[in-house]
Write a structure and sequence with these properties.
Two copies of one chain form a homodimer. Chain A is an alpha/beta fold and 427 residues long. Chain A is 45% helix and 16% strand. Chain A has 16 helices and 14 strands. In chain A, the strands form three sheets. A six-stranded parallel β-sheet of chain A has the order 1-11-10-9-12-13, with helices on both faces. In chain A, strands 6-5-4-7-8 form a five-stranded parallel β-sheet, with helices on both faces. In chain A, strands 2-3-14 form a three-stranded antiparallel β-sheet. In chain A, strand 4 (120-124), helix 5 (133-146) and strand 5 (150-154) form a beta-alpha-beta unit. The longest helix of chain A is centred in the first third of the chain and has 27 residues, at 27-53. The first copy, chain A, is globular. At the A-B interface, helix 4, strand 2, strand 3, helix 9 and strand 13 of A face helix 4, strand 2, strand 3, helix 9 and strand 13 of B. Strand 13 (342-345) of chain A pairs parallel with strand 14 of chain B.
């Protein structure tokens, strides 16, 4: 860990800079997958799945039977937990829906906007040792709430053609009907271009490794939208002596265990507190299953000792994906947050609550993108289409304004479209 | 114009395909501007402005005096029109603000989200013969309503250092304080990288030619966000015999006069109506100042004769930026719109009303992107940050859910962050 004690404010930006991750240039590789799937469709897809997932099938849709048996393969406790998380996430995301509000900007000029679900969306769920079924909830719930007609989920199967049952259970619960056993670049290419089996979609969501991330970037060349740019996950914990060192250490480790490139930052105003947290970190780390990952991530962790009055500035310079605030004046400080993805307030609000089940979304902007991007929400799955309806009275009220402005912009057909209507009403 | 009469539904996608605009590869050119401004800052900027705008100055901020004199240079009528448009746009965009709503997902688990303005945004306003002061309103009003702290506007000056007074008037009215006389690639590079004079921003908005569009794409490599992908403007008019041929022709021409690559589509169920519109088109075109542009655009225009029952499907296949509906059952058809940027309902709602002053935004998704993107709105200028605050009771209610899910995802530090808290409450 690197510790900086009361560094001058001019150095903060430099100190808080995230490490430049050397980007492997995967464009050539990704292009070859896309080209093959564009030219040879389902056949190329089978070849890639055989090669990279070790599965020799040629059809990838998860069947009814597979779904039913998945349900029997996970414990009742886990099912209850997933159901509870579903309820909380559903409740919070449902509250984000916007009612149509008709605004009469002038008499006879009525404007409104209506949220309409994106017709076709793709959800990518990574496989591997840790099955991210929580992400199925985080993406699937808002997709269904938004009214997306076609929700397609891709997740890699193992060589026997199996997807982790918790992923299948969560997908069923959410109401996703089309689940394909496809992962990696080939999944993103299939969702972008479509094959005889897998429908092409308009927007792709979900986390993934560097290959999936590169593929999502590349997909945009085909006019597919993606949820947001992706980078390593990160947490900033801002704590003073009112915080509990063991809790803070546990929160820092939660982030550190994600991966060796996880960004972990502690900001505090107490040297004594730093020592207590460090002690707790070594204690907790010693018994952690993912110890080697977490300890490597911690090597790059940052501890920043500043005056409490500067907490606000440090937060907003860094723009953390996850921000935990455990200080005396939590609410006051939370009010001052300008740049962050999701904020966890108080001693009993660990990041893991939001990662799984409090109700907020866990797909959040990393790498400083919290300055300009929001996390995934119901908004991410809709377009807000604007409508306007102008009456005869309305065009008489608004007409001359439009005529004058159109003329000043030298767009006379624009003007004429109003003039003709006004003339037709002269009598 | 190309007319298709009752083509089979299987052909619609092909017929409605937008022409592939050959994309000049401007990446190398754009990169050289960015490199120079990154390495030599303000000095490189001056060189580019001298070379491409013919202006020999070295400072580009519009002064108080210039703003004052701009106000005297435009007519009182135009000022009133701009003021009226301001009011309508302000009213409609203000209605888009979201109130903080605290949701208790479980007893003691409270989640909410708060809209916070992006701290620094850049607005690009093209110069040239038609000064797009209306775009100043469309971008500046939501930026200020969102509470963006730094709103920077760039627009090219002429060789004498002058920006069109209507642009300056609109910028003042909106409350934009920093206006720079910079256009083209150099403007986007300066907004991305910053110079001694021009602050770097987090998100760039606004229309532009192919150079500006390429520069905005390139800016994203520097972690700057942009409003949306840009393409030629487009309108689809859906009309039956209840529509007025002269109005429809005027609306088609409004789009056609924008540029030779404008996309103009008429969808109707009446051959007789097509003839009447064509007659009106030639009459109106004959007296149009931008006749040559409009007639070139009309050559690529599309007329589609289909059954009225198919209007809905044609609209949603095409996903028009602007959709005008002038049919008997306007409201019913408008309800069925799934893919469109902005919808204009009825005989007295020309597109030009929304382009200038009805209240809706005119920065809209083109090129079929209405399938996955919304137009610019207040949302485009904020991040919706999520917050959660969990009480001792709350973590006791939620804790086991999180523990079970974290364990199933094999993230034991995530679990431990909850377990430690639960244990501390055991007594």
């Amino acid at each position: 860990m690197k510790t900086y004690k009361f560094p001058p404010q001019g150095d903060w930006i430099k100190i808080l800079q995230r490490p430049q991750v050397p980007q492997a240039d995967l464009d050539g590789l990704v292009k070859s997958f896309f080209d093959d799937i564009q030219n040879q469709g389902q056949q190329a897809l089978s070849t890639y799945i055989n090669r990279f997932q070790g599965f020799k099938g040629t059809q990838f849709l998860v069947t009814e039977d597979e779904l039913k048996s998945a349900e029997t393969e996970i414990s009742d406790e886990l099912k209850s937990a997933i159901n509870q998380a579903y309820q909380n996430i559903h409740l919070f995301h449902a509250s984000q829906s916007e009612k149509v509000q008709k605004i009469e900007t002038m008499p006879g000029v009525i404007c409104w906007r209506k949220s309409v679900g994106i017709e076709k969306v793709g959800l990518y769920i990574p496989g591997g040792t840790a099955p991210l079924f929580s992400t199925v909830l985080m993406l699937g719930i808002p997709a269904k709430l938004a009214g997306c007609k076609e929700v397609v989920l891709c997740s890699p199967c193992d060589s026997s053609g199996k997807i982790h049952p918790a992923i299948l259970y969560a997908a069923q619960l959410v109401g996703v009907e089309k689940i394909y056993k496809v992962g990696g670049i080939q999944a993103i290419a299939a969702l972008t271009l479509g094959t005889t089996e897998i429908p092409a979609v308009y927007k792709i969501f979900g986390p993934g490794n560097q290959y999936v991330t590169a593929a999502k970037q590349y997909a945009q060349k085909f006019k597919v939208a993606i949820d947001m740019p992706a980078g390593p996950s990160e947490v900033m914990v801002v704590a003073d002596e009112s915080a509990v060192p063991a809790f803070v250490a546990a929160d820092l480790l939660s982030q550190a265990e994600h991966g060796v490139d996880s960004q972990v930052v502690l900001v505090t105003n107490s040297e004594d507190f730093i020592q207590k947290v460090e002690l707790e970190l070594s204690k907790q780390l010693a018994v952690l299953p993912r110890q080697s990952i977490a300890s490597e991530a911690l090597e790059n962790a940052l501890i920043l000792l500043v005056e409490a009055v500067d907490f606000e500035k440090v937060i907003n310079v860094y723009a953390p994906e996850h921000l935990i605030i455990a200080t005396e004046n939590v609410s006051e400080l939370a009010e001052k947050v300008v740049n962050a993805g999701s904020v966890f307030i108080g001693n009993y609000t660990p990041e893991s609550a939001g990662d799984y089940a409090s109700g907020t979304n866990h797909t959040l902007p990393t790498d400083g993108y919290a300055r300009q991007y929001s996390g995934v929400s119901l908004d991410s799955f809709v377009r807000k289409i604007t409508f306007q309806q102008i009456s005869e009275e309305g065009i008489q009220n608004l007409g001359s304004t439009v005529e004058l402005m159109a003329e000043a912009e030298q767009l006379f057909a624009h003007k004429n479209a109003v003039t003709l209507r006004l003339k037709s009403l002269e009598k």
